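Hi R.,

Here are the chain sequences for the assembly we discussed:
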Amino acid sequence: MKTKGLDKKPRDIWSLMKIIIFVVILLSIVWPLSTIVFRSVTNKFGEFTFENFGKFFSHQYYFNVLENTMFVAGWTTVISVVLGVWIAYVLSRYDFKCKRILNMLIILSLMSPPFIGAYSWILLFGRSGWVTTAAYNWFGWTLPTIYGKWGIVSVFICKMFPYVYLFTSSALGSIDSSLEEAAENLGASKWRRMLSVTFPVVSPSILAGAVLVFMSAVSDFGTPMLIGENYKVLATLVYEQYMSEIGTSSNFASAVSMIVIALCAILLLAQKWYLNRKNYNMTCMRPPAPVKLSWGKRIVMLLPVLLVVLIALLPQIVVVVTSFKNCNGPYFVEGWSLNSYQMIFTRMVRAIKNTYSFSLIAIVFMVVIGSITAYITVRKRSFTTGVIDILLMIPYVIPGAVMGLALIIAFNRAPFYWAGTAIIMILCYTIRKIPYTVRSASGFLQQMELSVEEASINLGVSPGKTFFKITLPLMLPGVVSGAILSWIETINELSSSIMLYTGKTITMSVAIYNEVARNSFGTAAAMASILTLSAVIMLIVFNKVSKGRVSIV
Amino acid sequence: MSHTVSIREVIKKFGDFTAVDKISIEINQGEFFTLLGPSGCGKTTLLRAIAGFNKMDGGEIAFSGSVINNVPAHKRDIGMVFQNYAIFPHMTVKENIAYGLKAKKVPRPEIERRTEEALEMVQIAPLKDRKPSELSGGQQQRVALARAFVIEPRVLLMDEPLSNLDAKLRVQMRTTIKKLQRTLGITTIYVTHDQEEALAVSDRIAVMKDGHIMQVGSPEEVYRRPANRFVAGFIGTSNFIDCEAKTEGSETTLRISSDYGVKVKTKRPIDGPAVIAGRPEQLFFSDGEGIPGEITISTFLGDFVEYEILTESGQTLQLNEYTKDVGSVRPDGQKVHLRFDPKAISLIDPKTEEVISDFGG
Ligand SMILES: Nc1ncnc2c1ncn2[C@@H]1O[C@H](COP(=O)(O)OP(=O)(O)O)[C@@H](O)[C@H]1O
Ligand SMILES: [Mg+2]
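And here is the predicted structure of the full complex:
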């Protein structure tokens, strides 16, 4: 006597949401990327061919570019891992008063506009940089050049080691101390303990950090553009090819993009494979208490860390300081003033307005779509939501220049003539930066017991109303925290903006890039300072709202 | 007015796995009914089907005769107390309790009055303006309880409400819950894996195993007259003693050892090996014939003494003796003979694991 189908699932609002979000993703992510795939295997007449890839692999020049990319990204990753793990270990295991501040400063160096580092380093160590000049004038030293590969690597490390640091410290904080104590009881020495117990457990997190560093290094556009001079990498190649192919059909740029995407995909798959082999599921019971050290030891331990953090922050300090210096064209001259600020507020108001208005509109979309997506992927799991989850991460791991290219190709024909409009910029920001919001919101949801929502339904409140009365308020800190991170990343976004902008839709990051390229350092510094200040303020709000429950990476 | 609850051949599957397998139960109006069984036997699954959170794969559930399969969870008029309390963390104690009344659009003054009453009943009135994070486990439990019954539901469901409390508080709270249920007269379905708790609070108990009902009965029935080996072992403590059974006429003779045998009545004839289930307090030391053995350890527990006895056939048995009934505690190592009251034991047919003793109605 089967009464099947008696409680057939009603077609509820969430099934509808799933469909809507899925369609939006297909239109805004899958379709543009598929146009890149299509372009990469066709010629300008639309005929199928592999000649674009052939061109890449048969010219020594392009092959060198690939090699260069691997070189910079490789060294950046190795050194970032060493620095990040070391600092995370020191800060999590020993008791320092200044821990919170240091943590905040490290995050800040992560949240800076990507090319600010390059620009400041040029100011300091460039051909006519202050340090270079001073060293020559005072001591007669000629410093090694900052331009080229090692310059790129240095700038990358300063900006990207925080990824490894953040991943590693959260993992170190979630090791149950009994695990290490057990090893200690068994007589393992401190080093053995670290190598045999601590390290294997945190290695998935270190790996995650390393992968993120590598991918960021592959995607970063501003730094190699500014400081690389003739040293070309894939991200700059995509841009250059696109620029030189403007008006034509950008087939070769698409092929290069495909190679970059393949590189990222291989890396992510390798990471997944490693994680599947090793699965330590830590349920944190009691994180180890930090050890108190004598003053002497404390200084020995902390000083190098302070030094690294300071160097990483140097660019921002330089930027803020120089923004108040007097300028004469490309030269800084004696005296301090607000001239640079006056200049940007008279000549570059549009960029400032655009940055804030685009980012705010994008944030509204991210919050609405992000909360719904977080809810359906956590609470209404199905095959579709699994696919949504994966698709949504694509624009996050694909270099901005590639995503920008994809959007231009896709949205520059009927029915969407969006190239050069604010719409395409906002669309790009939304899909590229929404993962921060989604991840933070779903993290909050996962910690929230399902039964709380059921209790509300049980008390006679319909599922729809329950979402607004119970779920949303409880999820809100997660959404807000995530949205703040999304926003900071949005106002700093250069690599996709530079592909998409026109005179009308220029943003601050693009304007800074242009000003630096024109050697107009004062105005660049003033704008960069405004971005940094925005980031600092929002990070403080973030700390208040998230109460340490949302991870930055 | 509270409901009767009819559960008819309810089936719930997770993939290929059948968590609830054609269960049927009739629950009376105002009854305190308990689903008891080991962890994973499907208690929560069945309870959630009643609450409307689980879609069923077969069968029907009716409240006072009307089938509610198609009534969504929020319209079932059920109160539920969750295992983890599920208090709304962003609301005060009072707001938590008033939540359901507001949803029902009860007039303000009445919400006020009923909330205050509920707070009094579970004795947390002084805490009404606190946030849940400022409450202890026991206090949160009281909030969850008040929030569920304040809406005067027609059925009250509780899923292991006491399992997160410490032992002492658990005993205290179960008395509170029982009294409250008596006062309000709400039909209550209570889930627990703790047999002692079930015996203490229930009017009737359904003992469950692997998605099936093993026995439904009053606490006394399931304790004294277990339907099968599982129930005998799960509820209270039972000694399982092997014997040879042979039915002749209306009587069955059980031979336990060479010099000890008893006569019992069974519902059907049996010939061959069988198992006797006997409670520790239904075993006695015997001066003459009985099962021979040796005391391995005796534990003095105040009101009674617990003996562990190793029989000559190699079985370990437990025997409880009330302190008031005997003079002194027997020493470890003493050789003893054990016997039991044939009318108090249950005879199990090992082939079906069913109890076949005839207790005479
Ligand atoms: N959502 C689910 N998906 C798959 N299996 C489940 C799910 N919920 C419960 N089960 C399985 O159903 C069985 C009964 O679970 P449950 O009703 O929670 O047991 P109990 O409450 O008696 O401990 C268990 O074996 C459990 O693993
Ligand atoms: Mg359960």
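The mean pLDDT of chain B is 92. The pocket of magnesium ion (ligand 2) is lined by residues B 43-44, 160 (CB under 6 Å).

Let me know if anything looks off.

Best,
T.
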